[in-house]
Amino acid sequence: MMPGTEEHLSTGQPVTGYIGFDPTAPSLHIGNLATIMLLVHLQRAGHRPVALVGGATGMIGDPSGKSAERNLLDETTLRANQAGIQAQLEKFLDFSEGPTGARVVNNYYWFKEIGFLQFLRDVGKHLTVNYMMAKDSVKRRIGGNEDTGAEGISYTEFSYQLLQGYDFFHLYETLGTTLQMGASDQWGNITTGTELIRRLTNGEGKAYALTGQLITKADGTKYGKSETGTVWLDPTMTSPYQFYQFFLNSADADAPRLIRVFTLLSQEEIETLEAEHAQAPHLRTLQKALAKDVTIRVHSEAAYEAALAASQVLFGGGDLHSLDEPTLLDVFAGVPHLEVERALLPTLTATDLLSVATGGQVFPSKGEARKMMQQGGVSLNRQKVATPEQPATDVPLLLDKYLVAQKGKKNYYLLKIV
């Protein structure tokens, strides 16, 4: 943070602070959640949080942390993305009236009124090219770099920090905003804003910067990606089950930091959980507490309960019939998916079903299927196959079209009846 920030926040008067969010996707992701938590803590400490949705700057693109120019979105897409982001922010912040009530603003609404020549005359002249080129986000891109694949930087992205700096000045003038926060890769852009405020007010304006560390794994790699891609806050883009599993599968080395960043548990509660976890790491006490807290706040208590039930299906024998189709497919996303013709089903024994009808992918032969069934090692929808000659239709289908076959303790197959 800039010198004086802590004192500025300790005067006993509400400080208005903001964070900018990029609307180039219809949902925020868990990397954004780390910065949302900065706003949550700001409000809990008696200050006023402002979330700026970059409707204007989202049309240009922030070069911070990027090696190439981004694709630009049209205004209709950006508006839809902004609406989704605002709805998500309302889950975390209190938007009631009063000195600490949160606000969402969109920089499109002030930039659309400013002409190019006006911006150059009133704003551009106050910052030198030397100052702007000294920023790390620009230096990494100037001239390109064959080693990193950087392509150089366009005037459009070069000007981004000037636009973000003006955002800070506009919010300083209109809302009395004196603090901008963000992840550490935003430091250059944020301090450009503090400098612009100083210069546009003839040195009288005081503004401050505070950043949190980028969330990375213990090995230094970026946090927030799963095997299927970015972990989004929108349940249609990352299901509550996938979301819960992502946090549940956090490494032991990462969990202590993540539970401090993403939850509102007290220091005492966290230290108690850490002590319990240290006694029996295999029980994943820290990860379970982390996954529960974040899933409930991002989704809901009901979504957490459903995710917990779904996770127990593979590991704790939960009820398959309680799962809806998206969750069932999520749970068994990593197992072989096989199809069986519905018309054939009444003619099949369990042996036929799991050998010939599934192309030998569960059992390569009827003999192997019979042998394991006789040993009690095969089940359909959690029901043990009693005999190799048991009709396949004896087991009720899940959602009228699925059978979960289990071979031994760990081998699962999802059969879709088509």
Could you describe the 3D structure shown?
The protein is an alpha/beta fold and 418 residues long. It is 40% helix and 13% strand. The chain contains 18 helices and twelve strands. Strand 1, helix 2 (30-44) and strand 2 form a beta-alpha-beta unit. Helix 9 (160-175) packs across helix 10. The longest helix is centred in the middle third of the chain and has 16 residues, at 160-175. The mean pLDDT is 88.
Q: What are the segments in which pLDDT stays under 50 over at least 5 consecutive residues?
A: none
The N- and C-terminal alpha carbons lie at a distance of: 60 Å
Rounded average pLDDT: 88
User: What is Rg?
Assistant: 27 Å
Strand content: 5-15%
What's the arrangement of strands in the largest beta sheet? Answer: 3-2-1-4-5
Order of helices and strands: HEHEHEHHHHHHEHEEEHHHHHHEHHEEEE
Task: Report the helical percentage.
Answer: 25-40%
Number of helices: 18
Instruction: Give a quick account of the main beta sheet: strands, pairing sense, barrel closure.
Output: 5 strands, parallel
Based on CA inertia axes, which overall geometry fits?
elongated
Q: How many beta strands in the DSSP annotation?
A: 12
Classify the secondary structure makeup into a structural class: alpha/beta
